[in-house]
Specification:
Pathway: Cofactor biosynthesis; biotin biosynthesis; biotin from 7,8-diaminononanoate: step 1/2. Catalyzes a mechanistically unusual reaction, the ATP-dependent insertion of CO2 between the N7 and N8 nitrogen atoms of 7,8-diaminopelargonic acid (DAPA, also called 7,8-diammoniononanoate) to form a ureido ring. With about 210 residues, the chain is an alpha/beta fold. It has one domain: Rossmann fold. The protein has 8 helices and 9 strands. Strands 4-2-6-1-7-8-9 form a 7-stranded parallel sheet. Helix 1 crosses helix 2 (about 45-50), helix 1 (about 15-30) packs across helix 7 and helix 5 (about 135-150) packs parallel to helix 6. It is globular.
Length: about 210
C-alpha cells in the first residue's frame, strides 16, 4: 500500500514528540520535517542522530526561530510573522513525518494553531500522550480539539511509566488505537529507536504497509 504522511502532535510540550517522530521515521523509512522550529538544539538534529534507516533525510523547516518559546512569541521577538500559507509540503517522494511544536493548540500567530498545519496539509495525526498526574484531562482536551476540527487521528502513542487505568480510560473515551508505549529508558540511541520502530510496525501495519 502507498504510505501516507503523518503529523505528530502531543498533549503538551516535552511529551515525547521528537522521540516518537524518530521511531515513526525509522519504521517508515521516511523523511522528517519540522515546519516551525522554536529554540535550540533543533529537533531535526536530535531525530537525525537517532534514525539509522538508509532512506532517512531531513527537510528544512519553513520557519526556524532561535527563542525557545511558543512559535507566536518567538516569531514576535524576532520580527517574523508566521504565515500558514508559507508552510507547504517540501518536495520529496518519500512519506513525511511532520513534527508539530508543543501541543495541539500552541499558537502560530493570532489566528492559527499548530494543528492548523495538519489541516492545511490534509495529513492525519498521531497523538503523543505522556503519562503524569493530569494527563487524562490534557489528553481528552486534545481529543476534543482534534474532534471539533475533524482532524483524522491514526492513533495514540503513550510515553512514560505504564499506568493501565489512565491508558484504559483514555482509549475508552477517545476510541483511538494504541500504536506504541515508549517506556522510560536509561539511554535513547539508534538501537533503542530501531527496537521501538519494529514494535510500531507490528502495531500499525495497516497504516504503513510492508517496508
Amino acid at each position: 500500500m502507498e504510505q501516507q504522511d503523518i503529523f505528530v502532535t502531543a498533549i503538551g510540550t516535552d511529551s515525547g514528540k521528537t522521540v516518537a517522530s524518530a521511531i515513526i521515521a525509522q519504521a517508515l523509512g521516511a523523511a522528517y520535517w519540522k515546519p516551525v522550529q522554536s529554540g535550540l538544539p533543533r529537533d531535526a538534529d536530535c531525530v537525525a542522530a537517532l534514525v539509522s534507516h538508509p532512506a532517512f533525510e531531513v527537510m528544512p523547516s519553513a520557519y526556524e526561530l532561535q527563542m525557545p518559546a511558543s512559535p507566536h512569541a518567538s516569531a514576535a521577538a524576532e520580527g517574523v510573522e508566521i504565515r500558514l500559507e508559507n508552510i507547504t509540503r517540501p518536495q520529496t517522494t518519500k512519506p513525511l513525518v511532520i513534527e508539530g511544536a508543543g501541543g495541539v493548540l500552541v499558537p502560530l500567530n493570532r489566528q492559527h494553531f499548530v494543528i492548523d498545519i495538519a489541516l492545511r496539509l490534509a495529513v492525519p495525526v498521531v497523538l503523543v500522550s505522556n503519562l503524569y498526574l493530569g494527563s487524562i484531562n490534557h489528553t481528552l482536551l486534545s481529543y476534543e480539539a482534534l474532534k471539533a476540527r475533524r482532524v483524522p487521528v491514526l492513533g495514540i502513542i503513550f510515553n512514560g511509566e505504564p499506568n493501565p487505568q489512565s491508558e484504559d480510560i483514555i482509549l475508552h473515551h477517545t476510541g483511538y488505537k494504541k500504536l506504541l508505549h515508549i517506556l522510560p529508558e536509561t539511554k535513547i540511541d539508534r538501537a533503542c529507536i530501531r527496537r521501538y520502530a519494529e514494535e510500531f510496525r507490528k502495531n500499525a501495519y495497516e497504516l504503513i504497509g510492508e517496508r
